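Trying the structure run again after the queue cleared.
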Amino acid sequence: MKRKIWLLCLTMAASLAVAAIHAVAMAEADPRGNSSRIAQAAANRVAATTEDSACIPDPAAFFGVQPNESGSSDGEIWMTYAFETEEDCSRAFEEYAALLKDSRFSLKLVNTSKKAYRYDYVGTKKVGKLNDRLWKGDDVIVLYNYSNAGKAVQITVSDDLELKDTGDRPEKAYKVKAPKNSPSVGGTTYEWDKPDCSVCSGSGRCRACGGSGHVTKWVVGTFEYVDQTCTTCMGMGQCYQCGGSGKY
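Done. Tokens:
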């Protein structure tokens, strides 16, 4: 009986030795061992992260000009693009708005007015909503047309949206106003380097409604007051001259 147990232990020891030799041979064949598989898994996760980010066409690439001004606050970014003529500004506004309707970007047009289009994201990615005080619904993009006040298109987007050059271009190039070079810094003169707007005194708000987009008017012959859309800013709450930047 003892001899059988001794033989069984000897057999198990031999099996373990063979397994160890095989492991060493595999490590020599692939000195990275598990590190290669870990690196591949990490690469896959990076690729998945890139694929998981929602994107929209980069306005700078589509318009053919860098933003005249830009900024960010509360989970959103905004950019303003300037054009030489009102016609080019309006055309750029409409053509970029049409591009956003492409199914590639999973956007839905949820509100339109004379000067603004609003879009919400309906895809599967996680995209935060804008803090849009002029719109009670959900939106992730607001596109403003200031063709008659500064000849500029302003875009406000959720910072969860990636601006990507998708290769889309207008059939006819726009006449744009590129940001001016500043001799003092050798860089770009942005909108905030301009003097304060003479109409809004630099606040960027409509003087008629104070930036709310609505005014309260007394109904003649009654004791009633009604809330109406401001006719000066068409309900957008922004200065008609500077487009809300406070600079002009």
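Residues 87 and 206 are 24 Å apart (CA to CA). Worth checking whether this holds up in the mutant runs.
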